[in-house]
Amino acid sequence: MRHLLSISDLDDNDLRHLVRRGAEFSAGTVSPAEPLHGRVVGIYFRKTSTRTRTAFSAGALRLGARIVGFGPDDLQENTGETVEDTAAVLSGMLDVLVARTAGSQAELALFAEQRRMAVVNAMSAAEHPTQALTDLTTMTRRFGDVGGLRVLYVGEGNNTASALALALCRFPDTELHLRTPPGYGLDARFLHEAEVYAKRGGARVVERHDMTDLPPVDVVYTTRWQTTGTTKPDPDWRTVFAPFQVDGAVLDTSPDAVFMHDLPAHRGEEVTAEVLDGRASIAFAQAENKYHSARAVLEWCSG
Ligand code: CP
């Protein structure tokens, strides 16, 4: 039984195993088996989700588990029951809890304090680790290896960006170029942690707040401007974000690059329809890889 609350929880071997295993599921090279037969997986989503919730639900069912779903209004947490009490009760009945709280890492850590039920972070305010595993799985499928890849990430330094930074910089000779709107950059803690990882393996992580002098890359990545579960207090935030749209001109700076997006997308905001639906886009293969990567995570968490 193992928890996945943050990419930082994974040692290098586990990170590489999860990416490789996700790619094997994606390639269809894993023999059909039901390693979770007899297990029960709780799927607890307090925030909206199309991909992650379905990926973990379908993944658990395909691996032979049964699932129990909880929506935002279902648990007695809503009426004041503590996280500790909730976790103590659920851990006596479930083998794995996949939780999108969109709250703090500290809350997830409370869920994980018990020793009977694995807890998977399906997106917190700070980090979206299963998205990063999907992203690296997708890069592995496309390029054969993550090592040496150059990625341009354009958009808010949100939970997708932090998990991507923590994961990508663990692979040797990678480059992560973050172009985040001023005032919406990556949390300094994550940037520092990614820089420490990067230094170890000859990788680079660089953040800027403009869209000039874009470097040549293998992957152009963006995320929607309104991160799930968040609001922006500045009423003029769209003006700040407008220069950070990924359009044909951005893609032309790296003519051989693929385009990735964690989805959901808003065509005409963070990305043009021409790019999202164009030849370079692998965003929908990436979305399907959420399912393949979820199976790798569930298998790993369940030992
Ligand atoms: N990318 C992602 O997490 O999608 P959902 O919010 O639909 O799960």
List keywords for this structure.
single chain; 303 residues; alpha/beta; Rossmann fold; 2 domains; 4-stranded parallel beta sheet; 14% strand; binds phosphoric acid mono(formamide)ester
Describe the fold and architecture.
With 303 residues, this protein is of the alpha/beta class. The protein has two domains: 7-127 and 291-301, 3-Layer(aba) Sandwich (Rossmann fold); 131-287, Rossmann fold. It is built from eleven helices and nine strands. Helix 2 packs across helix 11 (283-301). The longest helix is centred in the C-terminal third of the chain and has 19 residues, at 283-301. The protein is globular and about 55 Å long. The mean pLDDT is 96. The structure holds phosphoric acid mono(formamide)ester (CP). Phosphoric acid mono(formamide)ester binds at residues 49-53, 123, 131, 228, 262-264.
